[in-house]
Design a protein that fits this description.
Blueprint: E1 2-6, H1 13-28, E2 34-39, E3 44-47, E4 64-66, E5 73-76, E6 80-86, H2 96-112, E7 119-121, E8 124-131, E9 143-155, E10 158-166, E11 186-187, H3 199-214, H4 217-223
Parallel strand pairs: 1-2, 3-4, 9-11
Antiparallel strand pairs: 2-6, 3-5, 6-10, 7-8, 8-9, 9-10
């Protein structure tokens, strides 16, 4: 059984880390169910284990936290849905690559509910959308913007951290970092794409698609590229 936890007010980052650490320990000990926690944070930057100091371009803009997850710098704030995923991979195959692919597929499936085509790119973490409504890149290719970030950590094969999807954040807040170390592309949101999607709409899409993606790890992974 997976417990869905909904936060109805912004959650501080230190508080979120403390909660995840405790829940992961409880799951590993067999004293708690797996969980997905849907929340928003106040404006802040987080540094993953691969973060480069030069990618924090405005260090005084918002609080900066060492996240302990994989990846580089990212932004969290109001209007962005964060889904912290605490799942027991001991029972789900102990396949980290497959688990990350599942997280990507989950985001893509949720975005598809709003007729948004999310895509992954080799060498670029996260989920991307093409922007035919924007000027072409200098090389004549379509611009691609990032709409979702992914960063996970495992302890005793229990996952934590997870995904973030931009619903309607202040996109200027991303200017204090080089998101995920990628300078050549921008950041977008569902509302920036012209879609009047609410956080409640996105939550419903995430919940409805979760079982389809995570129902049987071995079977689903065998079907993924």
């Amino acid at each position: 059984m997976v417990e869905w936890i909904m936060a109805h007010a912004p959650v501080g980052y230190a508080e979120a880390l403390e909660f995840m650490e405790d829940r992961v320990a409880q799951i590993a000990a067999g004293r708690a169910d797996e969980a997905v926690w849907l929340l928003e944070h106040p404006p802040l930057y987080t540094a993953g284990t691969s973060a480069r100091p030069e990618d924090l371009t405005d260090p005084d803009r918002f609080p900066v936290f060492e996240a302990g997850r994989g990846g580089q710098y990212t932004y969290h704030g109001p209007g962005q849905r964060v889904a912290y995923v605490m799942l027991d991979l001991n029972r789900r195959g102990r396949d980290v690559r497959c688990f990350v692919r599942q997280l990507e597929a989950w985001v893509i499936a949720a975005l598809a509910q709003f007729n948004v085509t999310g895509e992954i790119r080799e060498g670029r973490v996260g989920v991307w959308v093409t922007r035919p409504d924007r000027p072409l890149n200098p090389d004549g290719t379509l611009r691609e913007d990032k709409i979702a970030a992914i960063g996970v950590k495992l302890r005793r094969w229990i996952s934590f951290h997870g995904i973030s999807i931009n619903v309607e954040p202040d996109l200027s807040h991303f200017e204090g970092i080089v998101p995920c170390g990628i300078r050549e592309h921008g950041v977008t949101s569902l509302v920036d794409l012209g879609l009047p999607v609410t956080m409640t709409d996105l939550d419903a899409a995430l919940i409805s698609q979760f079982g389809e993606i995570f129902g049987d790890l071995h079977e689903k992974c065998a079907a993924m590229p």
